[in-house]
Amino acid sequence: MTLSRSTRITSELPNKHISTSNLVLRMLSRYNNQTSPWVKEKALPENQRSKRFEVYPRDGAFEAGSTATFCCILPAGERFHKMYLSGYNGVNMRSTRISNQTYALTLNLNEASNVCIDVKCKTNRTTYGACAFVGYPPGDKDLQCETQDLKSVECRWTVGRNTQFWSRTKYQLQGRYNGSKGRCSLKMLVKAGETNWTLTASNRLGTVELHDRADLTKRVRMFAPEEVTASTINSRNVSLKWRWTVDEYEHLNLTCEVQGVHGETSSTSKTSGVGLNAAVLTDLMPNWTYEVTVRCRTETWRWGNWSRGLDFHTKGDVPDALDVWMQMKENQVVVVWKMPLTNQSHGEITDYEVTWANTTTRVPPSEHSLTLRLDTSEEHNITVTAWNINGSSSPSTVTTPNISPVNSSWITGSNGSFMLSWPVSPASSCGYIIDWCPTLDCQTVDWIKVPANSTNVTIFSSKDGLRYSLSIYACTEGAPVLLERREGYEKLFKSLEVKQQEMDAEVSWEKIPVRQQPAFIRGFTLYYWNKDNTVFNVSTGENTEERWTSTNIHYCCSEVWGHPDNSIFSMKTPTSIHSIPADSGEGRGHPRQVTSLSQGYIQRQTITLTFTPTGRTCKLLDLLFIECDLHFKNCFSYKNKDISK
């Protein structure tokens, strides 16, 4: 029995790249651990010698990170010098002689390149080369298909990293469509039931297949509704209709979202149904302009496109109930209410109606208070309503309290506000009311209502130089109960100015009107200290002018501490502070009895003044009201007059 076998030998280098003049083959066989002798050597037929310079492979494609071998075949008569890559840094490069005419360059292509890489082979006479491309196979993933009109399929996927190839990756959907990066479509009738969808992405280095299985009748990314109209417009809702451009939508189970927008506010509603083409948008504001848009989707698939906006204006309605409060002034009660905002009036306010006892009066829309002559020792129920062309608001009632004496305390504001807190009151059944106004000129009180679960609030109404009276009431079903009174101010000095000439400085401030002074101002004191916190001060005595000149500060600093380069100054004022009896009715029209209590801190304001003679610095920082002793030191004068004598 004769056995025959054929064998194919593959070199890592293409045979045509090798001169075969010295290439021979020998063969042997091995069977049952027995080996035959070598058969006769046989020389392969020699290829015709190359008459031209060649570098292979030409226009080859390689994956980044792979090892590649390039061949250089020399023409007869030329000597090899070297092989290298132009403009590319490969690693582990080595050149190998294959035969007299053939040389190889092997290296690791460690990074991709978006341009052709020149592979150079240099001889003793010239240099030739070939082009090589280094990139990546496709890395696309996450195929997902859907439809819009049920007559075509649209698929999207995540495109992989840049392959760096000059030739684009080719895409095919179901093997018969060339798509583009990340998106392609196919014309075909979509039927109910799951279908397998396959996308093939390929380039010179490889191919990847992406798969998706879905029933596309449940994956309809819908077109925007057309011709959206408002069939019925009411004060707080609107009925809408629209039309579909795809007839098949009439048989789908849809969910539609309707959104009405006004500025930064919006109202949204969702409705579901088969072939839905109408909806009602609720919770709208009366007498308000909206822009409404609609979009829909099938089951849990993604939302379709928004429709074009439709503008409409809701009808008016009666005003909302007013926010009403009162202010007690001797035998008068001032009923006050806040002007309704546009989203509360629901139309132009025509007037207000105030009712007490058996009396009713009308108040024009420009006014928001009414003064009544009533016995303040008794309780009175006062009701206020607002009117527009649609009717009257619900009545708002305030009951005047019979106020009993309560404790009064001081409070200090900051940054244009007062921060108040108080203990929980068992008398409160509907929260708390805090009102406030300037103590010495309380024309109209302001107020805020706080829910029952809160016992603190910040009032943003304080003005520099004004003393405020604040009252805290417990809200009840009847008359409010006065719990506490507070008095305070934020900043007495409205501004400080400093004029500097060499080592002299003049500090000035706006004059404080007597009616705005929280205490009797007795004078001013200059305090200053260095970084060691050693304090020095000088006072004007009983002088209350609004200007003060300090001379030769550098000399003073040196004389007192010997550290003139970092001293800080502070202005303070001695005052007399007065108490206000709890039942005096301060700020509400009652005569005021004051009792002098003590001297002490009233207010502080900071400025900075820097003197830089020969690089030395002194700083003037604070202007305050404070108790002080009348003693003087040299170097400082008032209005350029020496007051140290």
Describe the protein in words.
Helix content is 2%, strand content 46%. By secondary structure, the protein is mostly beta strands. A hairpin with a 2-residue loop joins strand 29 and strand 30. The N and C termini lie far apart (142 Å). This is Fibronectin type-III domain-containing protein. Residues 224-317, 318-406 form the Fibronectin type-III domain. Pfam families: fn3, LIFR_D4.
Give the arrangement of secondary structure elements.
Elements: E1 24-25, E2 30-31, E3 34-35, E4 42-43, E5 54-56, E6 60-63, E7 67-73, E8 80-86, E9 91-97, E10 102-108, E11 117-123, E12 127-135, E13 141-146, E14 152-158, E15 170-173, E16 178-179, E17 183-187, E18 195-203, E19 206-214, E20 226-233, E21 238-243, E22 253-262, E23 265-274, E24 278-281, E25 289-298, E26 310-313, E27 324-329, E28 332-337, H1 342-345, E29 351-356, E30 359-363, E31 369-373, E32 381-388, E33 391-392, E34 396-399, E35 408-412, E36 418-421, E37 432-438, E38 446-450, E39 456-459, E40 467-474, E41 481-489, E42 496-501, E43 504-509, E44 520-521, E45 525-530, E46 535-539, E47 547-550, H2 553-560, E48 567-572, E49 575-579, E50 595-598, E51 603-606, E52 618-625, E53 636-638, E54 641-642
Parallel strand pairs: 6-12, 35-41, 48-52
Antiparallel strand pairs: 1-4, 2-3, 5-7, 7-10, 8-11, 9-10, 11-12, 13-14, 14-17, 15-16, 15-18, 18-19, 20-21, 21-24, 22-23, 22-25, 25-26, 27-28, 28-31, 29-30, 29-32, 32-33, 32-34, 36-39, 37-38, 37-40, 40-41, 42-43, 43-47, 44-49, 45-46, 45-48, 47-53, 49-50, 51-52, 53-54
